[in-house]
Structures are given as structure tokens and as C-alpha cells.
Write a structure and sequence with these properties.
2 copies of one chain form a homodimer.
Chain A (H helix, E strand, L loop, with lengths): L12 H11 L6 H11 L2 H14 L11 H14 L1 E4 L20 E5 L1 H4 L3 E5 L6 H16 L3 E4 L5 H8 L5 E4 L13 H7 L4 E4 L11 H11 L3 E4 L7 H11 L3 E4 L10 H8 L3 E2 L3 H12 L19 H10 L5 E2 H8 L3 H13 L3 E3 L4 E4 L1
Parallel strand pairs in A: 3-4, 3-7, 4-5, 5-6, 7-8, 8-9
Antiparallel strand pairs in A: 1-2, 2-6, 10-12, 11-12
Helix pairs in contact in A: 1-3, 1-4, 3-15, 6-7, 6-12, 9-10, 13-14
Chain lengths: ~375, ~375
């Protein structure tokens, strides 16, 4: 399915199961998912070709493909928890989130789906926040909520929970880093229950998944991606909130930062963001003024760049391309130029390697062998 | 004298006395002083014409013209205090200050003149500052002083005195709102004595002048005008420091502001300045980085726009122009258009009215009758 069209018809159950199998298979992430669907036309067709592609990529062991039984079991367990797995364009999939290149192909949604269709503002900040930071996060969240915005955050300790609590009545969205049955931190289970009354919780992770360190930045891209902009309330230097701000910026989202005294280390990150161009805000009105023009903007669902794959590269070409790769990140464009192969062939070989777990993709079109 | 040429030769005593008489005469401010010198060629020639001009402007009582005896007495009393009255281009007249359209024609300088020739940074802020604000002002002033900058401020309570105290060793400049013998606040007389060891105090006011409310904004234009940029450390909304920031901006000086928590009313002014485009700073290095490119820039001593006066407008023209004026501010350009008189004639009539104490000049070329 092309997210660009945002169809109102829902998926068939069979197609939903196929998509779930595809995204839950080894080495398939949101970007790979899109490539495969685009090339093979459907999740079912892609699933049929996966073993062959991974084998050609030189997988050292057979790639684990999610079975139909496992996918069905996840779907049923999710439904028992009140979690619906939905795809871009379906009701309850945050519209701005579907703009991302790496939008989750299936998002586990629990709570009031209407809340996910309204304009959202992310609020993030230190887990170890000051009393003033907590108070200000509450004020902002309350005022934004009153103005009709849904406040999005990560259900963490500190600023996150303060923002959620102050916007429960207006609807607030918690973006989880683990599965819906693995709430972190555990003491926020009650907060989660409370916010589900008018808001929602979302996760792209399977049930049973316990969030680990690298899952948090991945989750943070959903906080910013679903939102018109993200407010960083308090942040030390080198904190997770600054990662969220960076991702928000890369996604074309507004970045807002709350200033603080240079003598307060918890303001070092936010003051630094303002120096780098983030918008200084001191009240909800500053945020609303900045996002109002964007709210009227149509979704930026870019036509997928035409990046076709090749049918089946010949063995010589494949060997040549693999030989050009190493542990040092290399530009895709350089690979195409040096190999003399067509872009479609190079992309196909890289996809095979990735499915085989042998390729790492870095930012800026750089790839390396693992 | 044309400040553009910044001559290294000093004035003769006679010319200094004439200039002092002219600027100390009723209704002659720095801009009027420049017009008169430009039109009549010397202070002596202008002094000879003053009574006639003011009479034509319809002065209700004879304009008070500073006598040679009074001027000589001020000069001698100043010298007994260690204050030298100097003119733009002379040693000890801050070079950046001479860029201003309303640069004082004579500046009373006391202390180390070398300090006045070095690059300056203004530091201003609340008189009623917080402990954190005072500490940060001290840190900044100390670090800027260490880096070779002269810190300029207004000798006031709060931020001003903290900035002066922390930069005494490197040289700091106090800009006074009253005369050199009327130090305000009186408890800062010792601070002033201490800073004169490596720094200086400057005033454009005559000895004996006690600063009143409207003298402070006038003084603030000298703090910013002498400096490459001005730092506002802490400021509530509607505070004098914000006036300094506005003047600095109008003068083309850099405006720096120290951020603070939105919950702190003493940061409301500085956060507001940042929203309006001031540069957020959290350390001296931020300031130095911003002013370094400007330091290499030659002085912006614009060629005086050619705005000649007329010899002696005829009575009909004068009456017509005065009739067009009223208490509502009117644009000079409209006056020229509506009167049908030449720009030189209109400017001359306005100068006469101003000398007679009947004209008020507002910003943006607006004038009104008093």
C-alpha cells in the first residue's frame, strides 16, 4: 500500500497478518518493509521471496521469518489487551507519523483513536527534572491541552510524566519504547491506565519486548514524528531529549526549547538548542503561534522516489559489489560508480546483504559490512 | 570639526571653550550642535548667531547662552576633579561613540584614557538582581576582562556594580547620568574611586548636574554607543535595561541576553529580547565569538548627509510652516511637501523653533510644537 493515498478502507485480516509477518521477520525494518512492498507488490509476495534474498546475501544461518501462527497469536494477544495493529492511512494512525520515511508499517494502538488524529505537540525533558522544570512542563501541557492540542511524550519519569498528567483530560499520547505489555517504568502503569480514558498509547514493538537502551532513540522518533513540533523543557548536555530534538529537526518538525539560567546545568541542553536555532518559548502561546501555519499545511507524503530493485543480479556483479564493501562506511553513490553496476543491481545486492544481517546502514547514504 | 576625520591634533583652548559654551546653551543638544557647526563653520560663529535664531523662532524669553566665564569656570573645576572635556577624535574619546549621530560634542573623561580606546562590551541589568544574576554578571565581566575587553556599565546598584567590580583589574568604564561631582548612587563613590585606577568614568553632563529619571535613558545610549555590543543579564519587562537594548539595536550594536527560567520574572525581559532576535549567551566566549568580526570593521563615521540650512527664510514662509505645525507629531517630509518651501528653509525654521524651546523632535523624522 502506498501511504500517500491514505485510503479509508481498512486492510483485510489476511493482508494485516502478512504485513505483521513481514515486519516481524529478522532484519526487516520500516524502510526495508517499504522497499519490499514496492518491489514485490504485496507483503505476501515479499514473504515468499525473503528466504531466497537472504540466502543470496550470504546469511550464515537461515533468516527467521515470522510464521503465520506467530503473527496471528500476536494479533490475538494484542486484541485481548485492547491493542489494535494499524497501518498508515487507517483511522488512529497519527497522520503526521505517516509522513516519515521510516513510519512503522504497523503501529500498536491502545485507547481512544480519535486522540491520535488530532494535532499533537511533543513535550520531553530530563527524567531527573527540577521542581521548576516539572511545574513548567505541567503548565505548558495544561495550556496546550486547553487549546485543543494532544500532548505526546514518552511516559518516562520527570518531565514526561508531568506533561502527561497535566493533559489527561484533554487527551495525551504515550509513546512506548517496549511492547504494550511491558510498561516502563513499572510505576507508571497507573498513569497509563488513567491516560487511556481520553488519550492513547502507541508502540511499534511486539508484545513481550522489553525496552533496551537503543529502543529509546527509536521510540523518540515517533514522539517527534507524530507531532507538529517538540518542546524540550529541561535537558542537560548529552541527554536523550537532545536526541529527540535532533530527530525532530531531521524530520522537519519544529523544535522548541525552554530557556534557563546558564548557572543551571539542567538548562545547558535547552540553551544550547536555542543557540543552534531552536525557538525559545516561555508560554504555550509561543508554541501555538509557531505551529498554527503548519497545521493548515497538507501532509507531506512524498511520492516514493523511484528506486527499483533488479530481478536477480548475476553472481559476478554481486561478488564485485560485496568486495567493494568493508567495515568502513561507504557512500552508495560511490559503490554504484566504482562497481559499474546499475543502481537497481547495487540496491538489490545491498537489500540481500541487509536481510542476511550482514549490512549496516548509516545516515547520509552510507553503508558498511558488519 | 567633522568627526569623520578623527584628527589627532587637539583643539585649541579657545575652540574648546567655544564648543563648551555652545553645547551648554539652552536648547542645544548634540544633533543641534552638529547642524550649527556644519552651517556656520565654527562654534564661535554659531554662538554669535544663536540669539537671532532663537528670536526668529519666537522664544518667549531670551535664550540663555552659556557665557565664556561660565564655560571657563566649568573647565577649570573639571580639571581640579581630574576631568578632561574632550571631543570626538581626541585621545580618550571612545572611537565607537564617535559613530553616533548624537555623540556628545564634549565628553567629561576622568581616569585612564587608554581604557576608553580599547574594545568595550556593555553589561547592564536589574538594580534588584538575584544572587544568580549577580554571580553570572561577575563571571561574564571577569572573563571578558581577561580576554582584553573593557566592561562598560552605569555604576548602578545590582548588575552594574557587579560587572564593574569583577573587571576593575582589567579596566572598566562607568558612564554617569549626572555630573562627575554628583555620583549616583552615593554609596558607589568608593567603587568609582577603585575603578579609576585602571579604568575611567565618563559623563556628558555639566558639573553639578544631578541625574533625574530622563537622564538615565540618555546615559544608556552612551553605554551601548561606546560598546561593540551590550549584554542584558537580568531584566524584568518594562525595565531600563530593555531601553538600553533598544538603543543598542538602533545604533547597530550587538544585543546579547542571558536566558532564564520562564518562571523567573527577572528573566522575562531577557527571554523577550531573545524572542525578538537578541543573541542568547551563556558564557563570555559566545560574546567574543560574535564581536570578533566586528572589531576588525572600520568605524562607521558616515559622511554628514548634506542638509544645508537657509540664510534667512522670509516671514511669510516662516508663518506658513509654523501654521502647519501643532501638538500632533508631523513628518518633516510632509511639512516640506505641504508648505511648498525648500527643505533648507523648512529645516532652518525648525532649528529656530527648537532653539526657542518651541519644538519637540520625535523619532522617525517627526516633529511637533510644544
Amino acid at each position: 500500500m502506498d501511504t500517500r493515498t491514505l485510503p479509508t478502507t481498512d486492510l483485510t485480516d489476511a493482508e494485516r497478518i502478512d504485513r505483521l509477518r513481514l515486519i516481524r521477520s529478522d532484519n526487516v525494518g520500516p524502510r526495508m518493509f517499504r522497499s519490499l512492498i514496492r518491489h514485490f507488490g504485496s507483503a505476501r509476495a515479499a514473504l515468499e521471496r525473503l528466504p531466497d534474498l537472504a540466502r543470496r546475501g550470504g546469511a550464515s544461518k537461515p533468516q527467521r521469518i515470522c510464521s503465520e501462527a506467530d503473527a496471528r497469536a500476536e494479533l490475538e494477544a494484542s486484541e485481548r489487551l485492547g491493542v489494535r495493529l494499524i497501518t498508515p492511512g487507517e483511522d488512529g494512525y497519527p497522520p503526521r507519523l505517516s509522513e516519515l520515511d521510516d513510519a512503522p508499517p504497523l503501529l500498536g494502538v491502545r485507547g481512544i483513536r480519535d486522540a491520535l488524529m488530532r494535532p499533537m505537540i511533543g513535550i520531553v525533558g530530563s527524567r531527573n527534572a527540577s521542581a521548576a522544570g516539572l511545574k513548567f512542563a505541567s503548565l505548558l501541557a495544561h495550556d496546550l491541552s486547553d487549546a485543543g492540542f494532544v500532548v505526546t511524550s514518552g511516559l518516562a519519569r520527570g518531565i514526561d510524566q508531568a506533561a502527561h498528567r497535566a493533559s489527561i483530560e484533554g487527551g495525551t499520547v504515550a509513546v512506548l519504547a517496549g511492547g504494550h505489555d511491558r510498561i516502563y517504568p513499572p510505576e507508571h502503569v497507573d498513569l497509563l491506565s488513567a491516560l487511556l480514558g481520553h488519550g492513547a498509547a502507541i508502540s511499534e514493538m511486539p508484545l513481550g519486548h522489553v525496552a533496551r537502551a537503543h529502543d529509546f532513540p527509536r521510540r523518540n522518533r515517533l514522539v517527534s514524528g507524530a507531532s507538529l513540533g517538540v518542546i524540550v523543557v529541561e535537558a542537560a548536555v548529552r541527554s536523550g531529549s537532545l536526541i529527540t530534538a535532533r530527530l525532530a529537526n531531521e524530520q522537519g518538525r519544529e523544535v522548541f526549547a525552554v530557556p534557563g539560567s546558564p548557572l543551571d546545568p539542567r538548562a545547558a541542553g535547552t540553551n544550547g538548542l536555542i543557540k543552534q536555532g531552536a525557538t525559545l518559548i516561555t508560554e504555550a502561546a509561543d508554541v501555538i503561534q509557531a505551529v498554527e501555519p503548519i497545521m493548515g499545511r497538507p501532509l507531506d507524503l512524498r511520492e516514493d522516489e523511484s528506486e527499483p530493485l533488479a530481478g536477480d543480479p548475476d553472481a559476478t556483479e554481486r561478488t564485485h559489489i560485496v568486495d567493494l564493501l568493508g567495515p568502513t562506511p561507504t557512500l552508495l553513490d560511490d559503490l554504484i560508480r566504482l562497481s559499474g553496476a546499475s543502481p537497481a543491481v547495487v540496491r538489490t545486492v545491498l537489500l540481500e546483504l541487509e536481510l542476511a544481517g550482514r549490512l549496516e546502514r548509516h545516515g547520509g547514504g552510507l553503508v558498511s559490512l558488519i
